[in-house]
Every structure is written in structure tokens, then in C-alpha cells.
Fucosyltransferase
Amino acid sequence: MDIKNLCIVHFALYSSKMRTLFTAKLFLYILFFGVLFLVYKILIDYKSYSQNLSGHKFVHGIVSKWLYSKVQNRTKQAEKKLDKKSVMKYILQWTSASNSPFVYMGKGREGFTSRKCPHTNCFVTSNRSLLGDMKKFDAIAFCGTEVRYYTKEMLPLTRSSHQKYVFATIESSHYYPVCTVLFDNYFNWTWTFRLDSDVRWGYMSIRDKNNNIIGPNKIMTWLKPNKMDSVSEEFKNKLKSKKKAVAWFVSNCYDKVGRRACALYLKQELEVNYNLTVDIYGGCSPLKCPSPHIKDCFKMLQDDYYFYLSFENSFSEDYVTEKLLTAVTNNAVPIVYGGANYTRFLPNGSYLNARLMTIKQLAAKIDELIKNPDQYANYFQWKNHYSYHSLDEDPETDEYCRFCAILNDEEKVNKISYIGDFRKWWNNPNFC
């Protein structure tokens, strides 16, 4: 190819590139001015719209800022909530994991996930070196029946201000008092049956007719019996089919409060003077339930017996166990015997308190109520307004779920409160 033709080819390529570059630049200029024009139109329209809202420019600005603030706050709260749920809460079992209540707590998160707890971001371990530093645990839990024997050398040597040291037990102080000053100002959380515990270990929840949890609590506002609705005729007829006086299911024949002696004296009084009796089932009597399945025993109680001995094996404040639940959920009037203030657990006119009556008075009252069906039926008026439930029926009330839930409650976690005189708090009314 000669030089002339080569120049022509180069010129053609150069011209093509220039045209392409010019076209691209032109497109960009058009796009840029188009965007400017669009923004201009939006601003003009917005200005026109704002001017039409005569007298509302200032309000419009305030509302806009308020809405923006609300959106920002909601976003921050959602992020905080999400972050909070994702943060693991570590619980160290300092004492043996085989003691109650630790034995049913599970390992890792299993105890909370299996119960379908509202919060499952709690991790249980007995490995003290899991986090490298014991001060990193959110809570260190001590089983009361074991730690009461500990010396100072057997306890953690250091602790951080954020940690919760938890005294945990399901047992009564009557059998397991704390007799050392070592724990004064030591525990800042408690997990017991006492109603003033940070996490309550109990056997029942009380709900109103709207299914709201209302107790048990230290102060209960019950409806007075004369304000309660009467039981239905159908329920009265069901109660009239009962044919036996008193039942008691018991396996522990020996205790510190003399409940077995009380039951035997009552049995004798009823048999001699009223031709009634107390039927004792279990390890303390030759009588056995008709089936090894407890539900069949409860069915027998519901169908046959007017009263049930809800006798506790010890006297401690608020110590009320499943023995009360057995009566109220099986249509038997409970005869209570314990150290609790029972107005925290039962409405007036729904039970008999054996500690406030002599055996003769108690036997006479049993006979009177059996002979007066309408009067006896009034002891069940509470059923129209309240209901009793086992705590493990619902993850909301389950003791282990609640322990994890309280660790996720910032207000409770940030509240620092130590029990100064631990012996007085725990042992009352018992002594070492």
C-alpha cells in the first residue's frame, strides 16, 4: 500500500473515533442537563405545593423532622433488639450440676430451645474456664443445698460488678438453713420459691378469667366470696356425687412439722365422731392408687373425695408446692398445713387451714360441709374467676425460661441489690 492510501486509511479511522467520542460526549451532556432539568422541575413543583399549604410551612417542617426522628428511633430500637437477641448470656453452674434445680437446666442452650423459651440466647455450663476468665460470665449460680456448706476458699476469688451471683434452690429453708455470715452482701440475685425472689421457683401460676397471670404474689386482691358468681347446677350435681371425706397422697413419712401425726389425729377424730375417714395413699400407708399412673389417682380424687390434705413437709415463708395444685385442679377443697401466708395463694372461702384450727374444729367443719352441699359448693366459686396452672405448661411461666428472660431484661440486670443479712432473709422463720 502506498503512502497516499495509508494516509487515507488512518484519516478514516481517526474520523470514526472522533465521531464516536463526540456522540458519547453529546449523550452525557444531554443526560446531565436532563437530570438537572428534572431536579429543577421537582423543586419548582415542591415549592408550588408548599406555597399552596398557606401557613403550614413551619408545621410541615416540624412533622417531617418528627417523622424522620421516629423512623430513625424505630430503626435504632430494632437494631438494638436484634443485637440484644444475638448476644449470648453465659451461666456458670458453680456447684454440682446434678443438684436441683440445675439437674433439669440442660447444657448449653438445649434447656431453653427444647422448652421453646421466648429467649434462647442463654448458655449453661459447669466449665469454669470456658470463657478464659470467670468474670466474663453473666451469671454464676450456686445451688443452695450445697453452697451452704462452702468455705470462703471454695468460692470464686474475683467477680466483676456486672455479674449476678445467684442463690438457687427449690428446697425449704426449714431443712436447709444458711448458718454462715459468709453470704451477707454476697448474692445479688435469688432463684427460690420465695415470692420476693428475683426469679421465682414455684409450682403454680394463677390467672384471671382473661388469662392474665395475677399471682401468686405477696399482695393479692381477690374478689370477696359474696362478690363471686355462684357455681352452676351442673357443677353442684357433680360435687354431690362424691362419697368419701379426705384423701392424702404422700411418700415422705417423716418430716419436721408433724404433718403425719396431724393427719392421723384427724383420721381418728373423723372415724370416732362422724363415721368419716382420711384415706392415706402411698409409702406411708397400705393404700395404693388404683393405677401406677398419677392421672388415674387424680381422677379418683376428683370423683370421690371432698377434701385433700395439702400438707407441706416443712414450714418456710411462701413454701407452697404441688400439693396445693393437686387439690385445686381436681375439685377437692384443700386443707392446708404449712408456713406460708395462704392468702397469697388462695382466695378467702376456698380452703381450710389446719394450723388455725384444732383437730376437733377441723373435723367438725369437714362434717358440716359434707352435710351441706350448697355450702360446700361455695368453696368453688373462685373457679368462675380464676384458674390454676402448672408453671411448665407455658414457656412464659416456665422457671428455666424465666431465668433466661431475666438475663435479657436490661432493667433487672442493671439494678444492683445485695442481700445484707442473708441468714435473716433465707432462714426466716427458721433458725440454724
Observations:
- DSSP finds 13 helices and 14 strands in the chain.
- Residues 3-14, 46-64, 78-84 have pLDDT under 50 and may be disordered.
